Amino acid sequence: DKANTFLSIKMRMPDDGPPSKKFKYTLQHKNNGNHVSDKLQQERRNLPIYPARGKIINQIQRLDTAILIGETGSGKTTQIPQYLLEANVNKNAIIAVTQPRRVAAITISQRVAEEQGTELGQKVGYCVRFEDVTSENTKIKYMTDGMLLREAILDPLMKRYSIVILDEAHERTIHTDVLFGVVKQAQSRRKAKGIRPLKILVMSATMDVDHFSAYFNAAPVLYLEGRQYPVQVFYAPEPQSDYTFSSIVTLFQIHRVEPPNKDVLMFLTGQEEIESAVKTIRDITRSTEENMAPLVVCPLYAALPSHAQLKVFKPTPRVCLYIYLKDKKLTDIEAITEGCRKVIVATNIAETSVTIQGIKFVIDSGVVKAKVFNPNSGLDLLKVVRVSKAQALQRTGRAGRESAGSCYRLYTEQEFEQFSDSTVPEIQRCNLSSVVLQLLALGISDIVNFDFMDKPSTESIIAAVHQLHNLGAVVKETSIKLTPVGRKMAAFPLEPRLGKTLLIAKEHNCLEEILTIVSLLSVDSVIVTPQSKREEALAARQKFVSSEGDHVMLLNIYKAYKAVKGNREWCMENFINQRNMRTATEVRKQLHDICVRMDFPVKSCGNDSTTIRKCLAYGFFMNAAELQKDGSEYTSLSSRKTVSIHPSSVLFRCKPAYVIYNELVKTTKCYMRDLCVVDPDWLSEAAPAYFKKKKPGT
DNA sequence: GAGCACTGC
């Protein structure tokens, strides 16, 4: 019945006109087959960045550090490394170009290799986790920011690079933020030591230029012009109480008046909300009496199976003519026959990670689901919050990538003015234990005074150091120092607790099993429980269940998965997410290789699950809880807070006296997720000092 | 008896 009111929102233009000049043309990457060079070279010369080529080279030639502002797609990411290479600004050494995402590093390097007329992995290559496609001939190396950071642990001066380009710096990923300080330090140390100079190029699409420049010792800023398409912005005339409803209303408002070949991108917050909106939209199109063009509705979020994600990229099909022929004029039909409309209902995955062709309309709810971290409680909380102005702008820009478009903001202009300018950098929002461990491994001991562009709070740094201290990774002398244990932990791409658990497993000769468990804990859940087939899923899972907890069950699942060689049908039948299982297998292989390199004997303890649980207790003693006297709930041993067993755990409805858990999530209650039954004696053995006041089980 | 934004090593 809500559907009948869908003209209730009237949009109006902002007083000062659309902020459309911000949005620029996007380079379309096409594979041109065999006759590469001439056509590709011509395409390169046609890019808006091309006329600025000489100037850019000159500037970078004489500068140590430069900041380059240009919208995504101005061609800067593909062209600038090539310009520098062609003018040999890199002096025959390697140019590193970082990207926040794997897929970007891979696809961009493919394109650049093509433009250079070389095989990928030769002059141009890429390096991301699990994949190193470079050789000794590689001069331009695209890589994830996290990869360069990990390399820096082995070589803090980054000696193999003469130029480091930090691309998409405005995204402020935790890795880019740490790299800012690390490259700056490498540059000045190399200068002091008389080693070949290191040039730093920071590329960003941000408006926050002054902040970047000030941080890099007033580095000059180069601006890039690009082609642009205007996006008209509309605001809601009054605050909206139900953004999902308003989004759907707006969609149909667009759908009734606009030519149907123009697709719509709608931003909502999460899987459940998206699926319900998709259903509502489909129901309305089915039940309406109006002659509307058909709508193809596609949900899009990261957890969606990849085959369903691919639907988004399919060209929108031609329209079913018969719907319109009966009472429409021919002129109307012409407009309609260009295609029916596709509407994509997405999370913020469509802001940066996924680019869809043909979007002319964006509907922005103005909200996003974000992780909020509280350093005092150590609790992560997933909350629906307002987007930042920068994020809203990013969403708006998605409407103008190929031609002019429109963006409907489901908030008033006054509300927009209240949004924060930019999203709080990740480094100020999350648990820092991994970052602190990495910085210490890089030889940086004074973390509180490290040269961050935006400092994380002192409390969160102290909390991280504290955790590392409890794990025996650091000692506090005159300064904070990494112990041999901490040094080994830093070698693994794992959060510190999991890294420590591996080291313990080595001592207990059960690395074989713990490698599996740790890998499964560090990827997204491999267990699927669809609402519609809940009973079926639980029945299928029954054969893996263990009374000792979720970790042992995960191990059982992995063994069964390996026994059928990762068979797809088996995964379907057993409600196992094959994609995440494959990732876990890759993680395991990587961790295994590191163990071998470090001369760790990878031994199996067979079916001795007690040893496995003991290792987990030794590594996770900070995440332990005891059953309360009345047997109803648990008390966390570290914070003395009341916590409960998450209903997804195999231990739900069981009442073991002591458990350790992988993580705590706060929703309606404080829930422990991924639990393992432990003996209280193991906890006090693991950390006698930690449990000095009260020994568990006494 | 609950509910899982998005990346990355």
UniProtKB/TrEMBL annotation:
Domain (Helicase C-terminal): residue spans on this chain: 250-443
Keyword list (alphabetical) reads: ATP-binding, Helicase, Hydrolase, Nucleotide-binding
This entry carries the following GO cellular component terms, namely: nucleolus
Q: Residues in domain Helicase ATP-binding?
A: 57-225
Please give the Gene Ontology molecular function terms for this protein: ATP binding; double-stranded RNA binding; hydrolase activity; RNA helicase activity
- Look up the EC number in the record and give it: 3.6.4.13
Q: What is this protein identified as? A: RNA helicase
